[in-house]
Predict the 3D structure of the following.
Amino acid sequence: MLQYFTRSLLGLIVVLFVVSIITFALMHQVPGGPFASEKKLPQTVLNNLNAKYKLDDPVWKQYIDYMADLVIPRITTGEWKYSVTNDYLFNIKLPVGDNTTLRWMNFGPSYTDRTRSVNGIFKAHLPVSFQLGLAAMFVATVIGIPLGTVAALRKNTIFDYFSMSVAILGVSVPAIVLGPLLQYVVAVELKWLPTTGWGTFEQLIMPAFALGFAQSALIARLTRASLLQVLNEDYIRTAQAKGLRNHQVIVVHAMKNAMIPVVTVMGPLFAALLTGTFVIEKVFGLPGLGHYFVVSINQRDYATIMGTTLLFAFFIVIANFIVDLTYVWLDPRIRFD
Amino acid sequence: MSSIDASTERVGEALPEPIRLAQETERSRGPWLDAWRRLIRNRAAIVGMVVIAAFILIAIFAPQLTNYTYAEQNYLAINTAPKWVIDLFPKMKEVGQEMGYVRVNNDYRFGTDALGRDLFTRIIYGARISLAVAFIGPLTSLLVGTIYGMVSGYVGGRTDNIMMRIVDIMYAFPTLLLIILMMAFFRASFSQSEYGTLAYQLNKIDAAFGGMLFIFIGIGITSWMDTARLARGQVLSLREKEFIEAAHSIGVSDRGIIFRHVLPNIMGPVIVRESLAIPRYISLEAFLSFIGLGVNPPTPSWGSMISEGAQAIKSYPNQAIFPALALFLIMFAFNFLGDGLRDALDPRATKV
């Protein structure tokens, strides 16, 4: 188990490195740069800017500089002067010396927004995306698992048909469709919830639902199929034969095993939620990180592209990793070695 | 029915009656025909097929169905709506009413957008993009994935190992980020390519298709892994079967075995997988167009129309809702058909 843990953790780091290399190479291949706007800058200004952000260096050197800033921790003493070029994500005070601090992960300054560092953008906007993602995940499981369970337990009844109709509806309405529809019906017509904005609980409900509903449909279908299969197993009959109560059989014996295939899709599902956040943020006017990801690509804001890509990649990879670990808990037969 | 074909073929042959009958029944069977029969007994799948067929007809005959082109702007008819649309959406108020702001123009069936373009025309032309993605997306994924998976599974050994490691890495890779980066890369770098180079030619083809070529390439690059894994698994289980061994023993070449004996046997599951993935491709295209990395404007895509319409959803809901409904309908239809195909081609799976 420990061996498996370390090995997949190493694999995770390798993937992130590959992502960083590909992203860096791709974005520097794209013609144009962060300072190539419609309004042409004077050549000297452009030269100075390129020199300041070290854009004249060969790409491999830029990459190494960037990664060194990001990965290698720094220890500073004495007075620390903050600027956008040295804004670190982690600042850990060490108990020795005069103001000794361990600083780690500098994503660099944003190239287009001169007053902010990429870390500053993260701090301001990541919480929004994260809360939205978690809320959507919550919606997806809270709707999906009960629907699928009811459908499986009452197979070929009206409950089953209803649940599966909801499920097929859910698979057919991506966030891009459900977002505007909900916004119109619930916010504009019925005026139950605010149309756009961020900050209150009411403003979270609609985006979370729009994002989570499609995923709930997926979970419902999978739960149903998997639970039906499990209910046919011998050990379920054994449990019933020895006189356990019905709900005990289902909750203790069947559900845990039926959840294994459901958990496997949680990883890809999380990635799908990410796609959705880009859309949902735009439709509902939320100040999330997805906007910065898309805009930075169009503006060739190199540091922000790298930062957001690595951050999103990190979350996806971590989600897959957690999914892997959950297997072991759900199915003790799976031993990674 | 094919029994009729069989009998017309045999006209004139003086076969004794009972034998001919026996042969006919034998001919009419076959896994594909069985699957087809199961498919057309499934009502949901039929509905799906009808809707898709309707969309295909609309896409083909789009120029005949409308008097406008999708890029034509009428500056005198910006953000207008016909009467029935205003009646449909209670919060839309026509000019003249209290707080009314929508100008009525019954020339345009669904109204016009913020640039004075006919919404109806743009929606029916948008069907072309979605349908093209629905057919070419699975095709690219099928082609790359099946060949990759079959080779990997059939060759086996170290080659298999390396090929599958590559798939593993691609799996762990956040493909969505990759596809967005690639789209930006294609768009920007190919548009500045020099005359006569391959990049220039590709960009010209892409421009001719309104930006779809790069979407296909993007989908192709990021969606073949599932199919490859499935094909490999199928090949692995088939490789040990007697009929493959028999083919080997009578001296059929590897290529012959792969294409004549293995391929037909793995097509069922692979097709099911791909048909279930179609809605995903459609929504991927809509998503890319939504964030501005899909088709080139002014080519209409439902995704970009929803994106534009969502900005004005309070005042002109028709601009976002109509394309959204179109997207919903086509995804619904493909989901129905995909489910039907799964039940038809893989009857065991339904017995769960």
